[in-house]
Every structure is written in structure tokens, then in C-alpha cells.
Amino acid sequence: MNVRCNKNILIVDDDSMARKLAEFVLTKDGYNVMSVDSGEACIECLKKDSNIDLVLLDIEMPELNGIETLERIRSEKTIADTRVIFLTANDFSKFEEDSKRLGVLDFISKPLFGPEILERIKKVFAKEQVCDKETVLVIDDDRMNLKFAEHMLSSVYHVVTAQSYREALDYLSKELPSMVLLDVHMPDMDGFELLTEIRKIKSCEDLPVIFLTADSDRETEVRVFREGGLDYIQKPFVPEVVLERIKRILSLRKLQVSLESEVERRTAELEESKRKHEILSLQVVKTLASAIDAKDRYTNGHSSRVAKYSKEIALRAGKPIEYQNEIYFVALLHDIGKIGVPDNILNKNSKLTDEEYETIKQHPSIGVEILRNITEMPNIEIGAHYHHERFDGKGYPEGLNGYDIPEIARIIAVADSYDAMSSRRSYRAALPQEAVRKEIVNGRGHQFDPGFADIMLKMIDEDVRYELRDDGLNM
Ligand SMILES: [Fe+2]
To answer: At which of 258, 280, 312 does a domain end?
Structure first.
């Protein structure tokens, strides 16, 4: 049987056993294999040998690791286009971001063993179309038909022939042609049964197949399409018809593949840009929160802590991750209205006058005004607006009652009070944990939503060292 083309693979791994195993598996499958034990040696090898088709690069290596090695490869003009698959014995997901950035084609878990690895390598080569000519596999039990097909197609395509279902399946388990011409009538296993077996090979799930048949009845014609054939060619062959049909199907296929990869590329670009926007928004909001906290010298970090506690309460209340992330944002800005309160009132050491207290009570309304311009996140002002509302209706600025207060604000209200009591203020030291707990118990159903107060109490009870404020929650 013809082998489609010889591909050169470079294995880069500091582990000699892993290298040997990979060499054994890949050489056995017909690849030309070289191996080196470090990132430096890999770069050197690539510079010397321009015929390396694929590098299997271990991520975890001493000195230059896989990611650093690939960054160097991408920065060197002559070898920047090298195809790379990452190897790792660990969880892939933590390397996903770097891999996207560096154009890694796939991940393979170590040790390199089993058919799945060969499938992935095969797919990479098929996708990248390493060979100039496209390969057509012709399966027919009649040797004369095979000879004729080979003669007819070989000026345009690289032709591989198989005379039995065993030969065909053996070839397809190792290689991925561009198309299959499949005889309907064969001994042992007919063309339709063989196609079912071919589809079981993962990389051949979408492989285009044209049936070859001497039958001209309608039943065969219908069955060809029903069983997943893209077309059929009547025997005896008319060379021009065969070539045109193959050409048409392959160009459609190419269009489909390039559309798919374009969609993949665009989706990845959009996801990356969305991720960057999210990071930017979070950074801007955190910076704003720090600006708010900087105004009040005794409550440094208050906004971040309230955001942290609010997110934890939401998590424990069974809210989805999107809700948890939203409340984190909203809570970071709950006190933004304090920007409009004079510093001498915010930082006053002695008791506030009634007038000063009224000025402080303006901060929820000022917050709403400031946040009104952020139209892309309509809920952003909810925390600022309602975090001083009370469950019993005695809060401000609107005096809302019970469940009329937006849920996000009911959560932030508990988190805000907990932080106010457990932190040092301009007029007093931090309260002991037992006193804080008592205040939350007393406020349950009065100042606070009882359900969220209960969650806060559980968090307090679990915090045996009273360190929630410092590093109890890592976010
Ligand atoms: Fe406040």
C-alpha cells in the first residue's frame, strides 16, 4: 500500500523514557522521528533542519519550559511558522491561554501512548495539508478497476488503493485521505457496511465518500445517499465524469473546512476581546473602588471586602457564577456616592451632628447619579442605591420594605454591616467577633434579610480565628 508522505516529527522532552516511548510509537506508525531533551536544543534543531513538519513540545521542562521555548520559536523569523503540539502530564486548561496566544495546534497528554495520539497527529497533518497533492483512497475488490482508477486519477491526485475492507480500515486507522471512492459490491463486507465501520474511526467521521457501482436501479441510488455517501459514480468509469465529480466535492469540502476554521478563528478572536474587556472593566471598577476607599482613611479596602463577602454569600445562597460576578462588581461600587461627601465629615473622629449625618445619608443618591451613565450594566447602581435600606422598612433613601428591596442590595447590606463592624472606624476600634455576631442576630429580619443574615452567621461561625477580614476568602 502506498504511504501518503513521510513526515518529520521532532519530540522535545527532558524525560528520556517519555522520548523513547514517543519515538517507538511514532516510528512504528511510519513517521520520521527525531528527539531532543531541551528547549534550546529544539530551537537549534529547527534552525538547522527546515524539513521538520511538527514539533511535540513538552511544557514542563527545566530551564527553558515549553511555553518559553515556543515564545522564542515564534520570535525567530526563519522558524516562526513551526507547527507545535504541546505535551503535558498535567491539566491542559491552565495552559490554554498561552497556547491560543502562541498558535498551538493541540494538546496531548503524556505518556504518549494509544491510538488517540496518532489520531490527533493525523488530524493536524490533514488540516494543514502537508502534501501538495490531495489523496484519494480507492476501495474496490476488482484489481483491474483499481488499476484503472489509479491511472485515471494519478495525474491530479495522490492515489492509494485498497482491495479489501481490512486493507482499507488499516490504512484509515493511520492516515486521513481527502476522499474515498468506495465500491458497493465487495465480498465479506459490502460498501455500505464498510462505510459504517469507517465512520467509527474518529478522524473519518466527516470524510467525503463517493460510491462506485455498476447498479443503475433507484434503490441503490437512494441507499447511497441515505447511508452517507456524497455522490455515486457509475461503472464502467468515464474518466472526465469521475474527475469532475471528485473535483467538485473536494472544492466544496475545502470551502467547508476553510469556513469552519474562519468561524473558529473569529470566535477565538471575539472571546479574547471579550475577556480583555472584562478584565479592563474589572480593573477600572477596582481602581474606582480604591479611590472611594482612599477618601475614608479608616476604611481602607472596605469596598473590596464588601464585594468579597457579597460574592461569598451569593455563592452559598446557590446563585450562579454570573450572578456572583455581577454582585462582586456592584458591591465594589456600593459606596461610590461617598465621593460627593466632604472629607471632614467622612473622617470625623467625634460624633456626627444631625446635619452631618443627613449629609452622609445623601451618598446612595449621589451614587445613583454617578452610575447612571453606565448604561451597559443597568444593575450597577442597585448596590449604591439600596444598600442602606432595611428589611423592616426603616432604612434610606427610599424606605423600601422586605423583599421589595432588590436582592443584590439585601446581600450587600449584610456584607456592608459585617465589614463596618469588623473594621476599625474613625470613631471606634473593630468590634470583637462575638459582638459582631450578636448585631447580625439582632438585625435578622429587622435590618437584614433573614436568609442572608443566616448565611453571614454561618460564615462567622466557620471563621474561628476571626480572620475573614484579612485572608479568609481568596478572590
Ligand atoms: Fe454606604
So the answer is: 258
